[in-house]
From TrEMBL:
PANTHER family: REGULATOR OF RPOS, RESPONSE REGULATOR PROTEIN CARR
Species name: Cupriavidus alkaliphilus
OmpR/PhoB-type domain span: 124-218
Keywords (A to Z) from UniProt: DNA-binding, Phosphoprotein, Transcription, Transcription regulation, Two-component regulatory system
Residue positions where 4-aspartylphosphate is found in the record: 51
Name of one Pfam family that matches: Response_reg
Protein name in UniProt: Two-component system OmpR family response regulator
SMART domains: REC, Trans_reg_C
Positions of the DNA-binding region: 124-218
Lineage: Bacteria, Pseudomonadati, Pseudomonadota, Betaproteobacteria, Burkholderiales
Domain of life, per lineage: Bacteria
GO CC entries: cytosol; protein-DNA complex
Entry's Gene Ontology molecular function annotations: phosphorelay response regulator activity; transcription cis-regulatory region binding
InterPro entries assigned to the protein according to its UniProt record, in alphabetical order: CheY-like_superfamily, OmpR/PhoB-type_DNA-bd, Sig_transdc_resp-reg_receiver, WalR-like, WH-like_DNA-bd_sf
Length: 224
């Protein structure tokens, strides 16, 4: 999953980015409203963390522009403590949730996980496809209860597929959602990650749809 973090406080941005990366997310950052506006309008993010007090263009204006342009990524706004007016204005502008500064990193991560689940219509905290279970909070994967150790990129590929069960996901979409913008992307490596996932999972849940991409299905539904 790929996150856009918009925060102009350098130390806080570095702390949040590190925590998101440790949690398995690909993270892009912006330190002002204009850069945020362009990134959010041009790149496919799974969630956005948006500070409201930004230079060049304030966060509310950025959010309103995104929503007017039909940018649908869920947005968590960061507000000043006890600023109920900012919270109301943010929600009315199209935000999906808010978090007051200062905050605990665990709460921010929990809210991001919840936003992504709701965006995909998945209320349960764990994801499941047949015998494969994923716990995004713990960063764990198991098959029939047995733990499976994945690399960071393998986890991101499986995470994205499990958030889109039954849908055909192209290699391009996977590339866009598992790498940060500044990463040297190569769509050919997606085939490598999928091949490794199949071997490690040991069950037939990732179907190749020739010429289109991949689809996640329970073993009984998967086709070779």
């Amino acid at each position: 999953m790929r996150i856009l973090l918009v925060e102009d406080e350098t130390a806080l941005a570095a702390q949040v980015r590190a925590s998101l990366a440790d949690a398995g997310y690909a993270v892009d950052t912006a330190a002002d409203g204009l850069d945020a506006w362009h990134l959010g309008a041009e790149q496919p993010y799974d969630a956005v963390i948006l500070d409201l007090g930004l230079p060049r263009l304030d966060g509310l204006s950025v959010l309103r522009r995104w929503r007017a342009a039909q940018v649908s990524a869920p947005v968590l706004i960061l507000t000043a403590r006890d600023s109920w007016t900012e919270k109301v204005e943010g929600i009315d502008a199209g935000a999906d949730d808010y978090l007051a500064k200062p905050f605990r990193m665990e709460e921010l991560l929990a809210r991001i996980r919840a936003l992504i689940r709701r965006a995909h219509g998945m209320p349960a905290p764990e994801l499941q496809c047949g015998p494969v279970r994923m716990n995004p909070r713990a960063g764990t994967v198991s098959v029939d209860g047995a733990p499976v150790v994945l690399t960071a990129h393998e986890f991101r590929v499986l995470d994205y597929l499990m958030h889109h069960p039954g849908a055909i996901v192209s290699k391009t979409a996977l590339t866009e959602h598992i790498y940060a913008q500044d990463f040297d992307r190569d769509s050919n490596t997606i085939e490598v990650f999928v091949g490794r996932l199949r071997r490690k999972l040991g069950v037939d849940v990732i179907e190749t749809v020739r010429g289109q991409g991949y689809r996640l299905r329970p073993p009984a539904q998967a086709r070779s």
